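Morning!

This is the sequence you dropped in the shared folder:
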Amino acid sequence: MAYVEGRVFYFERPGTENTPDAARFAVERATALGLDTVVVASTSGRTALQFLEAARGTGLHLVVVTHVVGFKAPGEWEFDPATAEVLRSAGVTIVTGSHVLSGLERAFSASPKVGGGSRSEAVAEALRRLIAVGLKVALECTLIAADQGAVPVDREVVACGGTGSGADTVVVVRPANTSRFFDCQVREIVAMPRDR
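The structure's back. Tokens below.
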């Protein structure tokens, strides 16, 4: 039977301190596979700047996915506008979209009048608990980016997410649009925290 051997990096614990290594691993794996796109979650822009620095001079296209406006407070975008300008001037694509694994569902499950969980939230929770919070984030960002037309659905990308802040999970993904969620494929786990 044919197989491919590869390296997986395991962080001792999740967290922001893993971001520089996660960025390096993402760039190295994308380059090794001949991929042209790295997708990364970034709430404020700090993680995005670290990935921009890691990708400098490689020709990789960086797609940054941010929280939707109003995620933390009504009408407020958490992303730093000055950082957004720096990223855009460097050719980075910034995508802001609703969380596809919660979004409207979260409003229903949090409501005391309606209550209960949803299938989307069950998928999100399974990804968070069984594998890594960063995997759920990386997949969700890839779906959001695909829905916005920022990444192709017929070519692999490297996707990165984190636990709370920063990046601690790196995967190779064949994207899909949210309406075709089950066509999305995690092809490789490049890095993730061992303890969640």
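Headline: Residues 54 and 132 are 23 Å apart (CA to CA).

More detail when I'm at my desk.
O.
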